[in-house]
Specification:
The mean pLDDT is 87. The chain has a single domain, classed as Nucleotide cyclase, GGDEF domain (Alpha-Beta Plaits, 2-Layer Sandwich). It is built from 3 helices and 5 strands; from the N terminus they run E-H-H-E-E-H-E-E. By secondary structure, it is of the alpha+beta class.
């Protein structure tokens, strides 16, 4: 059993990923795909910082971030989606809002 080291609080948590990433990666090849993902990450991280978010995790081409205010999470998701278009890709984003609980270094939705 993990010991709780944080607490509970309301947060907005956007999740993003690149649309069609599997086929894009197959078409580009591994080297070019890795470079594209690195550029994508720089752009998304810039937007996260710009809107006051906190990066929690990445998984391949997706991000999990938290914000104190839902409006900031939505603005960040929209800005990131617009910004990555310069790379020739689209991202999709969903924003969840609710009570989250901090466990060690990660977050979990509270029941």
């Amino acid at each position: 059993m993990q010991r709780r080291t944080g607490g509970r609080g309301l947060a907005a948590a956007p999740f993003t990923d690149v649309v069609g990433s599997t086929s894009i990666a197959a078409e580009m090849g591994n080297t070019r795909w890795v470079e594209l993902v690195a550029r994508h990450h720089r752009i998304v991280r810039h937007q996260v910082g710009r809107f006051g978010g906190r990066e929690i995790d990445t998984a391949g081409d997706g991000f999990f971030v938290t914000f104190e205010r839902p409006a900031d999470a939505i603005r960040c998701a929209v800005a990131a989606a617009e910004a990555v278009r310069e790379l020739g890709i689209e991202i999709r984003a969903g924003v969840s809002f609710g009570e989250l609980e901090t466990w060690a270094a990660s977050l979990a939705a509270s029941p």
